[in-house]
Structure formats: structure tokens, C-alpha cells
């Protein structure tokens, strides 16, 4: 009996060995064929380039792309199966222009509208390059992908897992908010790294097991955002650890001077690919863009009316600050819960595991509301978003473009709605200069219902602290905005704005001192205004003092009672 089991096990092992040998033979044959096709493609591109200068590969306007479907490219069977699994068949314009260049081994500087499918332009070349090179974990890290935010890095990692599910390469996600020691244990056997610059640089400087001497590809996604967020020094530090003989792919939604300088520093004999036209709108044609003009103290009323009218839609609401997001999420979650509309929030102050949970949950939802800051405005691909609502005015036209780009992605339809106060209407001229077509939606008088009582009740129930922090955070963001033609803190009606948040009055100085962190960097104009308001209230109290109260006020007993009364009133306010 034991002898029979031993023979059966031996036959199974022999069969598996033969299967592995056959797969290895087929892989070697496929790799030889791929190398031949790639060499032919490279020769064809070099001959087509002719005497043109390097970097002049930009297509002429109206020229049809050479490739329209993924199966026309020299791709391995494993990658084609991954693309079919993800539903990727027809290429977008940026993919059609950039993918064959990246597969041929050129350095690529790509620029395309948000939502145009830039992620596959570097995920596919990473998988193919490592497959053709027959990459093994003993050779170290073969590819490095940098992303400006943790959420975008997670999204790239998910696409890499989806398209490369048939490949045998190991991959790691390195972002802040995770256990460094747990990451360090796995780095010795990693072929592909996707991460944020700070955490990647930390491992490169501290971990001897992280070998990058043989790296084949270096990718920077959302390069303009990487520079805007202050990662220039980290990127330079990372490149000092990389070999010079590598392929570099750099993609961005906009081409700024800083991006061009980064390209000169990191790319060699690059090919520049863009889908932008000089007069074309920087947003997709399938995106319907609208704006409404509403007073600051009526914006919450307008947003509540909008969400009630679209209960079955998937909506992203952009707000300026983290404190505003927290207040609006806590307030609207209680209101929307009665209508069975799920809501969630996403800010940079949240723990990493919570941010990932919110991101993945919102991706799975068919109808939900996400309150977020501009951390979600770049690169994140939320599937099937119907509305991108910009509750607070963006600080620039580029910020507007990236916010609106969370909908109408990859050829789908979507709608963008911009909230503007009468003082913020000069922003329309900046958007018109960028050829952004906006249509105004007028709110009929009487249609906008007053909802101040709802927010007052929520503040009484425990949101007073969050409302005060939201009030201060918004004023601070307006005051420190660089565009003074659009943002003017002196034009804000402080009392009306405070009442719209459910506060009975503008937060006084004692409450501001209690807020501590929430009140840091408060503009002096705001502080002086609140001090004047407090002084006027004290003056009004003194004017109503009767003659008898003046007489009694001379006694120590009355002053003691008056002091106790003030303490009692202060305790009531704190509650």
C-alpha cells in the first residue's frame, strides 16, 4: 500500500516536472519571438524618425494612430490575458501614441488629459520588460513606480495585480502609514515596487537588502503633482541610487517648466507624446460642466438640495480643508442616513488603513457620497462617478481640471458642478482662458429651502466643536490663498456664515483659545474682527446696566455673584 502511494506520488512529481519543462520551452520560444518583434519595431521607429531631432515624435494633428487595439502590439500571452480580464481591448489616444514607444525601449515623456488611461502606459511595459528579461528575484528590483499620494499608489498596485495576474513577478506597495519593519522583511524578494517618494527613499537609504543596481524601468506618474507636493529632493535622492542605464517613463496631466526640468534631468533621448491640442479643452468632451452662483451662507442649503435630488448617483464633493470635510461628513451622514444614501470622507489626516478602506469601499459602491479634500483630485480612478461637485472654489484652473477629472473617465459620461459665491465669479475668466466650457445653472427664487435649523440641531447634538473648526479653517484657507482677485476674506459675512454652519454666533476669543490646533495660523484680520465683535457685545451689556445695578455693583458681594454667573454662562457655552 505504501509502495503504491510512493509510486503515485513519484508519477505526479514527474508529470509536474514535464509540464514545467514544457512551459519553460514555450516561454523561451515566446520570448525569442517577442524580442524579434521588439527589435523590428525599434528599427521601424528609428527609420521613421530619420533626421528629426530626438524628442520630436509628437504626432501631427489629425494623424490616425498606428495602433488601435492591444492585440496589435508585441505583447506576451500572459499580459494579453490580463488585459482581457480587465476589459481592456481598444486603446485610448495616449496609449496608442505612447505604448509602442515604451515597449521599444525609448524614454517617454507623456502628457494627456486626466482620465485618459495613462496608468496602462507604464504598467504594461513594466510587465513586458521583466518577462522578456526573464527577471528573477535574485537580480534585485527590476522596476520602480513613484506616485504622489498613497491612494494613487494603491490604485496603480491594483491595476498591476489585475493585468499581471498571470505573471510570476513579485510586487510590493511602499507608502507611509504602514509598518516599516514588515515592509523590510519582504524587500529582499521583490521585483516591482510601487510607492510614494518619502517611503521609497527611506528604504533605499536604510535597507541593504534592497538592490537596485540592475533596475530596468523607472516610472514617475503625475510628475507635476510630485513636484507641487515638494518631492523634488526625494526624487533626486532616489535617482542617485538608480543605475544610469535604465529606461525612464514620465507621465503628467500638465507640462510645466518644473516637469520639463525634471525630464531633462532624468530622461535620455526621450520621445515626447501628448494628446493636448493648443486650443482644445483640457477636459473630456463627454464631461458636462456647470456652475451655480450662491451666497456663502446658502451653500449648505444648495448642496443638501442637490444631494436629495440625486440619491441614486455616485458623487464626489471637494472641499478646501480637512476640518470642513470632517464637519460636513458628520453632519450630512446623519441627514443622508435617513434617505439610505451611504456617505464617507477622505482626508490626509486619516490613518492609512482607514484611507484604503474608504477608497476601496467607495469604488465598490454604485451610489454614494464622498466628501474629500484635493488629496483625491489627482490620479484616483473611482469607477462610474456621476457627479464631481466642487463645493469650494478651486485655487486655480489646474485644480478645477483635476477635480472635474474624477468623472467622465475613459470615455464615460459625467457631470461637474462648481459652486461659486458672487465674490468668486472672477474665477470664470481664468477657466475661460483655459478653454473650459461652463454653463450656468440658475436657482429659481424660493426653490432653495432654508436648512439652518437642521444644522443648528446637529450642532446642539454635539457638532459645535467641529463647526467652529470648520469656520476657522475656511477663513484661513481664503486668507492665505494666493489669488486675491477671487478670494477676499474681507468680503465674507462672518455672522451669516457662522449661522449657516449651525453656530449661534461667531466663535469668540475664549472658544478660539480652546480650539488650540484648530486656531493656529488664524489671519489677524479675522482675529481683530472677532475681538471687535466681542468688544461690541461687552459695550452693549454695559449700556443696559440699571442705576440699581450700578449701586449694587460697588459691593464686593455683588461682584462675587456676578463672577459666578459669568463662570456658569461660560460652562453652558462649552457644553
The level of helicity is 40-55%
Kindly, what is the distance between the CA atoms of the first and last residues, rounded to a whole number of angstroms? 80 Å
Pick out the low-confidence regions.
Answer: 53-65
CATH topology of the largest domain: Rossmann fold
Number of strands: 14
CATH H-level superfamily of the largest domain: P-loop containing nucleotide triphosphate hydrolases
Tertiary shape = elongated
What is the residue-mean pLDDT, rounded to a whole number?
85
Given the helix and strand composition, which structural class is it?
alpha/beta
The helix count comes to 21
Largest sheet: 7 strands, parallel
Count of the domains:
4
Oligomer: single chain
| Arrangement of strands in the largest sheet | 3-4-2-5-6-1-7
Q: Strand fraction band? A: 5-15%
Over the alpha carbons, how many angstroms does the gyration radius reach? 29 Å
In the CATH hierarchy, the architecture of the largest domain is 3-Layer(aba) Sandwich
Catalytic activity: ATP + H2O = ADP + phosphate + H(+)
Subunit structure: eIF4F is a multi-subunit complex, the composition of which varies with external and internal environmental conditions. It is composed of at least EIF4A, EIF4E and EIF4G. Interacts with the U3 and U14 snoRNAs. Associates with pre-ribosomal complexes.
Region (Disordered): 45-69
Motif (Q motif): 68-96
Features:
575 residues; alpha/beta; Rossmann fold; 7-stranded parallel sheet
What does this structure look like?
With 575 residues, this protein is an alpha/beta fold. The model is unreliable at 53-65 (pLDDT under 50). Strands 3-4-2-5-6-1-7 form a seven-stranded parallel β-sheet, sandwiched between helices. A seven-stranded parallel β-sheet has the order 10-11-9-12-13-8-14, sandwiched between helices. Strand 3, helix 6 and strand 4 (192-195) form a beta-alpha-beta unit. Helix 7 (197-206) packs parallel to helix 9 (232-239). It is elongated. The chain folds into four domains: 1-46; 52-274, Rossmann fold; 287-450, Rossmann fold (3-Layer(aba) Sandwich), CATH 3.40.50; 544-575, no CATH class. The chain has helices at 2-49, 77-85, 93-103, 120-132, 150-163, 180-186, 197-206, 223-228, 232-239, 257-266, 299-309, 322-337, 352-364, 397-404, 427-433, 452-479, 494-500, 509-515, 524-543, 547-553, 556-574, and strands at residues 108-111, 143-146, 171-174, 192-195, 217-220, 247-252, 271-274, 287-293, 314-318, 343-346, 368-372, 387-390, 414-420, 439-440.
